[in-house]
Amino acid sequence: MSGRRYAESLPSACFIVISCRTKTTQNEQTAATHHKKSHKLPLAPTSSKGYIAKRTFKVIILGDAGVGKTCLSFRFCCGRFPEHTEATIGVDFRERNCVIEKELLKVQLWDTAGQERYRHSIVGHYYRNVNAVVFVYDVTCPSSFASLRSWINECEKNGLSADSDIPRILIGNKCDLKSTNAQRVDTDAAQMFADRNNMALFETSAKADSEADHVESIFLTLLHKLQQSKPMHVQSEGERHAKEQERLVLKASEANALNEEGWCC
């Protein structure tokens, strides 16, 4: 069953930053979807004053163009839906500090262009030293769901398989449009796909303010799992700055390529 439905049967004591060390998919979903029963509690400390971030986690977001990858990262890192959205060129990332169990963690959400034309040019930089993977599809666009297999294959080619101990989750975005759209991805089918690929499934909306806590909970649940694990590689502060410069150079090169080639109709 989906995380949202499973949460309804749980006691109200469940909370996002509990010391839950289970690795089961159901409990990951439960922690992130139970916000409706505990939304008055803070999801994480609001101030990082007095803390020093010793660990930085790189989380990549994969999915077709237009599924809302940028909007999800913007909602979590900036606390709101972006007023203006444009197609991502190359790669970009946003970051946020979060205090979990008295430890300040820095999470980088790396967002990539979903267009096929960019995949091969960014692959070497994008998949390097990844700590977690978030796959995103549009619940009102079945073709974006069908494309998930190719994104998973791309990950596996770069060493990010289900057996690599790197957490992977699946997000169905734009659920605010699901009831009014004739074409939609069935939740049960999505859950079966997630189960086959050893991922937790979440359905949410980056746009709807009513889902803001849910988006927050999804990423904090993932970060909590990373905080409890011992990842193979965690960035130092120097590496973090180097990555930011790498991202700027890569994005600039992709923008130049786009200007030279022009848009295709």
TrEMBL record:
GO terms for cellular component: endomembrane system. GO terms for molecular function: GTP binding; GTPase activity. Keywords: GTP-binding, Lipoprotein, Membrane, Nucleotide-binding, Prenylation. Its main location: membrane. It is a lipid-anchor. This is Ras family protein. Belongs to the small GTPase superfamily. Rab family. NCBIfam families: small_GTP. It is found in: Endomembrane system. It comes from Ancylostoma caninum (Dog hookworm). Coiled coil: none annotated. InterPro entries: P-loop_NTPase, Rab33A/B, Small_GTP-bd, Small_GTPase. PANTHER family: PTHR47978.
